[in-house]
Amino acid sequence: MRNLQLSRxxxxxxxxxxAAVAAGSGLLAACGSSTTPTTGGAGSVTFPDYLPYAGVRAxxxxxxxxxxxxxxxxxxxxxxxxxxxxxxxxGTVSVLTNILTPVPPAAGSNAYWQELxxxxxxxxxxxxxxxxxxxxxxxxxxxxGDLPDMTLISARLANRADVLTRLCADISEFVSGPxxxxxxxxxxxxxxxxxxxxxxxxxxxxxxxRAVVGTIMFARADLIRDKGLNANPASYQEFLALARGLTDxxxxxxxxxxxxxxxxxxxTMLGVPNVWREEGGRFTSEYETEERKExxxxxxxxxKGGLFHPDAMGGKLQLRDLFGNGTLAFNPDGYAxxxxxxxxxxxxxxxxxxxxxxxxxxxxxxxxxxxxxxxxFKQADKGRIQQLLRIxxxxxxxxxxxxxxxxxxxxxxxxxxxxxxxxxxxxKGKVEVKLPLEYVADAPHVLGPGDRTRIDAQRAYxxxxxxxxxxxxxxxxxxxxxxxxxGAMSKIIxxxxxxxxxxxxxxxxxxxxxxxxxxxxGDAARAEYEKALAEQG
Length: 537
Fold this sequence. Notes:
Blueprint: H1 8-15, H2 18-25, E1 92-99, H3 111-120, E2 123-130, H4 134-143, E3 150-153, H5 160-167, H6 172-175, H7 191-194, E4 198-199, E5 202-203, E6 206-209, E7 216-220, H8 221-226, H9 236-246, H10 259-270, E8 276-279, E9 282-285, H11 290-304, H12 319-324, E10 330-333, H13 337-345, E11 349-351, E12 371-377, H14 382-395, H15 402-409, E13 416-419, E14 422-425, H16 427-432, H17 452-465, H18 480-484, H19 486-501, H20 510-536
Parallel strand pairs: 1-2, 1-3
Antiparallel strand pairs: 3-12, 4-5, 6-12, 7-10, 7-11, 8-9, 13-14
Helix pairs in contact: 1-4, 10-11, 19-20
């Protein structure tokens, strides 16, 4: 077993200091690093077989290409997926993860937590840290040299390939190919999500899955209908006409409130790559394409034409609130926002698939990030790793199982009641059932259970865009430069985009921006991705 003891001085030296880790890694971070870089990426890894769970029948089954399953109602005949306690014999299991809600009561005064430990057959010792403080907390834990049994790791962690391959357990022998069968609910996670766990030819974590469908251009379907406009534009010009028809400054309504996502949406129409394009082993950045420059030009024209909120260039708008009250007609957001927007603001939410720029069908949409983060394990003997995997398997049981129902809603009668076929948290449940278990392991997301009309609309959108989804060819490979210099590289692009769409600089200045981006790390990232691809063979 490798020595996990890292001095604080060595840890900070290897990562460039806690502040640098926080700046370069985005939402979360993890175990530490080394001075000797390790090649990241899938290499010769064999990903787990994808074995959809057949024990629960969805109203709309998931598809092999990534269309999410849909449920109109919660299943009434729940399946008990585990005959015993998955963590039996594991004792205390330490977990480090983030939390986005208020921290729930501790185990000693939390009946839900106590029952969770009883059902697992193990004691979960969960350290929950607010999202904004997670990197600092994690840096301190790792510098102390004692990793927890399970640690949530961001896909954007600086030096994460080195971290995982040197400090965390390689779980390949337990999950590769058909071996995943012993963990049926981890096997229910699509292959796309597992790509984030592969480094140096091994699998080093369990993914927390997200759907492959990416950002959706949400629209106020009710406003479109009220104005008698075309809700399904078949070209850029038709989309532009829709945006113009929805904009009415005198009525305090504009089409858009964010420029960057509109650039991406127009770029989708034009065929801009999803971050990178790979041809014959060579990578081309989306920024280097003429189509990306044209998308900037078209967006700048829309800004000049008054289709954006007057404060859109300031970047401080509360986009969801403005969409909900009708000030904005469009709001690009993640797929989960469909339900959030509709339920929070009680409005009719629709979607606009990007058409090909000059017509001819739906454009190829960019795939989303298929893993929120990954959960890595402290190096230990095989028996211990298998215990941790069984616990993660239990946490990944899907809708329709007793495990899922307890995990999300606690004990019926105490933590929730069933009203019109739906579990509703009691006051006690709202306080106690707040453990961030979904940031340890989770089942693939589904559509619903909920309103049938909305679920059918969500499903129809996915059936249009997912079969031809455009994946990033760099996914499954690792570039230290792309991670470590992400902040500086993004700032070059973001500042220049804003200047161009706001009319402060001409579109022709984009060429100089791309040249600066390449010098700041773009070329180095390209070389690292090309090397990783070549090593994969």
